[in-house]
Specification:
Distance between the termini: 6 Å
Number of strands: 9
Bound molecules: adenosine-5-diphosphoribose
Strand order of the largest sheet: 3-2-1-7-8-9
Number of helices: 10
Amino acid sequence: MADRPALVILTGAGISAESGVPTFRGGGGLWEGHRIEDVATPGAFARDPERVLRFYDARRRQLAGVEPNAAHRALARLEAAWDGPFLLITQNVDHLHEQAGSRKLLHMHGELLRARCSRCGWSDRWTGDLAGVACPACGRLPALRPDVVWFEEIPIGLDRIEAALEACGLFAAIGTSGQVWPAAGFVELARRAGAHTIELNLEPSEGSDRFAERRLGPASRIVPAWVEELLVAG
Ligand code: APR
């Protein structure tokens, strides 16, 4: 199956919802119970590091035991079968894509199962709590932070993402509300490159009308169906 178009996929919290990881917006979303400016900005960490670390410690504990669902597994299958350029960009800080087998993966908002020292730059995989823990490299406290991208910080890999979008022939956004930039603007860059654009989401997202095609429903149902279609069409 040669000559596949270059495929770029963007995922958001909705793809992990059926694995039991809460989304951010909407009823019961994380931002309903917490103010972003209290827990997810550099200023919040400077003012009250313990509070920020406790918020992320709770998120990390929630990840214990969660498993990839049929949507994550379908994207790993797609990557393995795709005979053409492929990039999976996730806004999610969970590890469910890699657990499902995805390898051409970019965590543009970082990873919750990694820690980084805000003082000396040390970073490594981290599965325990961070509140009250000194940096293993420089010994300072508070200094460790989750290796995630906060509001007001620059997402990871933007140059690589932009290059992939400029060359892309097919762009899909899955399980994202389209409210956070720059990810919300990726569809526009893909369109300008001449790509076919498709949204797969439980409900139409904020920027739904920017997509050429839309499939609505739970990710665990609509993503495997879309993947099968793509693979059969090849
Ligand atoms: N299947 C498909 N889509 C779903 C499902 C599901 N089972 N459940 C929820 N959704 C959809 C919602 O309808 C919503 O449009 O997923 C989307 C989730 O939106 P958000 O909670 O806003 O998550 P996301 O778009 O990933 O947020 C982007 O915002 O707070 C920041 O850094 C955080 O990476 C995050 C970024």
